[in-house]
Design goal:
Length: 393
């Protein structure tokens, strides 16, 4: 089959690889009909290279039609239309039963000290072949699948794999008080959808921060007050001005470790991509090459006693944090990969009863799988107004 594979920094290629097959009774094989590119894939494209091997198939935002199931899979059957969550989880262990499938004890990548395995996301997360391909082998398919109805286009449901539950969890963890204020830093697909969900759930004021004009414009269409990072010397001060001088009740960091604007971060970042893998890997894990620009802004912009919800992905172990400020402001901090299945029942009514979140028009580009390499480049450089790219194998 055809699949998009990682070959090096900023080098994704369309490869021909063996078709996947059922190897465990809990497996299913799904034929992909839509498979999206995520902001998280851009970390693979850049800083997470040391954890990738040449030929790794990437992608973790898929949907399609079940082709075949293993003998232990009874919840889905060939012919079913399914969305596949980005994390692989059993649904039966202690963690899954707590609503924490990101920590699934059946699929945890213990050799690396990490949580649940993810599709197409480095050896840290199990080096599981990803979904930007014609077919996907889905381990633990009895739980790692979401059956969706026939009728609406794929666009309606495909974001259940990642964007929707991720944004939902970001808003849930932000715990905005009724009618309160929320600042969302980063208006990529995750930040944009977090704004829409927060507005839908009754936030009084949502302020969105980014530096890409079309992303700011998209958020404004949903009633978000936007701030262009390039036009404000002190964004936190501007956010305080908009929130009675106190700062936002909650802040979502939807940028993660590749924030623009930190010169040291940029240097370390470039070093990590130029060093030999063995050295760069240690550096990423221990020293951290992270740019904490967005997180520092969140700490500054949140009001005293407020909540920061980190949904952007971070790595590294040794990043200095302003503990005095975090402690003195009494900031509540919540974070993590999205527990996809935990939120599906909350989100589904917003997909089957109209389209209040505007998912049908969310993708800016629909391209065939074989244009994947160009799609990565366009998305990373934020060219041609690319915000969300759906690949159609
Ligand atoms: N926790 C999870 O489960 C989960 C799931 C999906 C994505 N993510 C992470 O969420 C983050 C966003 O994902 P996305 O798909 O929206 O990606 P994206 O790269 O399209 O969006 C990031 C946005 O942040 C903006 N930005 C960069 N630096 C900024 C700064 N200093 N201040 C304000 N804005 C800035 C960029 O212009 C861009 O619009 C990524 O880190 C991704 O890895 C996490
Ligand atoms: Zn994703
Ligand atoms: Zn589990």
């Amino acid at each position: 089959m055809k699949a998009l594979a990682w070959h090096g920094k900023r080098d994704v290629r369309l490869d021909t690889v063996p078709d996947p097959s059922i190897s465990e009774p809990t497996d299913a094989i799904v034929r992909m009909t839509s498979t999206a590119i995520c902001g998280s894939d851009l970390h693979l494209y850049e800083v997470l290279g040391p954890f990738m091997a040449e030929g790794d198939v990437i992608g973790h935002e898929p949907m399609g039609i079940v082709e075949e199931v293993g003998s232990a899979v009874t919840s889905i059957a060939p012919g079913d239309r399914v969305v596949i969550p980005f994390q692989i989880a059993c649904g039966r262990c202690y963690m899954c039963r707590q609503g924490l499938p990101t920590q699934c004890e059946t699929t945890q990548v213990r050799e690396e000290g990490m949580g649940a395995a993810l599709f197409g996301y480095t050896k840290l997360y199990g080096q599981v072949p990803g979904a930007q391909a014609e077919y996907l082998r889905v381990p633990q398919a009895q739980f790692t699948s979401i059956k969706v109805p026939e009728g609406p286009p794929d666009d309606r449901f495909v974001y259940l794999s990642d964007v929707l539950p991720t944004a939902w969890q970001a808003v849930e963890y932000a715990a905005v008080p009724d009618g309160g204020s929320l600042a969302v830093i980063g208006l990529g697909p995750i930040g944009d959808m977090s704004c829409r969900i927060a507005m839908h759930r009754g936030a009084g004021k949502v302020i969105g921060v980014d530096l890409v004009p079309e992303r700011l414009a998209r958020a404004r269409r949903y009633g978000v007050e936007t701030l262009d990072l390039r036009e404000h010397d002190d964004v936190a001060e501007t956010i305080r001005d908009l929130t009675d001088g106190r700062g936002a009740d909650a802040v979502i960091d939807a940028v993660g470790m590749e924030a623009h604007g930190s010169p040291f971060g940029k240097l370390a970042h470039t070093m990590a991509t130029l060093l030999p893998d063995s050295v760069a890997e240690k550096m990423m894990e221990r020293a951290g090459v992270d740019r904490l620009g967005a997180f520092h802004l969140a700490i500054d912009a949140v009001r005293r006693g407020g909540t920061i919800s980190l949904i952007g992905v971070y790595g590294g172990m040794a990043d200095p944090l302003p503990m005095l400020t975090l402690f003195d402001k009494q900031i509540q901090l919540r974070m993590g990969q999205a527990n996809v299945k935990r939120w599906v029942d909350d989100i589904m009514p917003l997909l089957t009863d109209g389209d209040p979140l505007g998912v049908d028009g969310f993708a800016t580009h629909r391209l065939p799988l074989d244009q994947g390499p160009q799609a990565y480049e366009m998305f990373q450089k934020k060219e041609e107004g690319a915000v969300k790219v759906l690949l159609q194998p």
